[in-house]
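Revision sheet: structure tokens.
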Amino acid sequence: MSRTAIAITPLGTLWFYVALAGFPVGLYLRSGPLLLLAVLGMGALWVARCLARRQLRKIEGRRALPKRLFLGEAFAIGVEASHGRRGGVARDMRLRDHLAGSGGSEVFIDEIGAGSASTLEYQGRLFQRGRVAVPGFTLTSRWPFGWFECRLESEFIALRPGDESILVAPKPLIPRHIDRVLHQIEQQAAMHSAQLADELAEFRAIRPMRPGDAVRDIHWPTSSRSDQLMVRETDPPQPRPRSMGIYLFHHTPSGEMVQPDRFEHLLRIACGLVVRFWQAGYPLVARIELAEAATYQAPAQDSYHSILDALATASYPVGGDLDGLADGWDIYDECDQVFVLCDSDHRQWRGHVESLHPSIICIDTETISRGRPGRKAKVAKRRRLA
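Predicted:
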């Protein structure tokens, strides 16, 4: 829906009073030319008002936006401003996009011809988590003489389906004490995850033997059918990727005040872990126990995005107890490491989860702790391939 408003500027006000003063002065002096100038001045003011109001009609804006982004992240905005009015040209306009930073960012448009378009690019930021309905734009112009300012407020036309809103995920955060633990896990993976793969899985091709090839690589069946020695060419063994698990839940101890800021901080840590595992290529199993329980497995199609979307739209749950924490942990049977996250002190809930998996790490918004070594896990011991 579009709305147009027009207001006189200080320069237009000055012109109005000068032209208005010409009437009594012309009558007093009985000067025809002075009265004619006063009439022409008022006529010019009226013509300028009509032109200023007319030039912003039929102006449309189309905008391309990303589907999802992180809180506070700068992103590119592409806008196409078009003029659909016949026989007219829109000039000297300023476009203010309320999505671009605090209060919007003004972009100058010199001219848009009839039936043509102007392409603009600038940056925007969003500081609200969740699905955000994108605002419209404001177009202002003081053409032709600067006497009137015409203002057009309208909504953008989406260039792609879904551009009517943006999903804003929490800004990823990996605190220093968690980063040290992740670095240790990555070092252990680099040292111990390499394994001897199946011989057929390594096989790539057969080629003639060259100096320096080992005798054990000779492929005797092929060599017996040819007049030269042939060797097998294989790929080096590939390390087995680490598999990670994330269990996120909310708990408010009785007698404590509700602290939504700690909940938001926990979502940032969870988002940081997901992004870290995604970049490292680790398979991930995530279970989010908030208002509704949901389980995600990556790297299935769009699964990492689904986890980030769930964190983006998570609302602060009411209540939250420790009943049922031990349910459904069979999904982590193939995980090498499980990260359990909660917004309350880990000492209040650690004992409920540390025996559910052989390798578990408990994280709250301030501290991190590993499961007690040597404690017998309730789940069956998994067969380790590494």
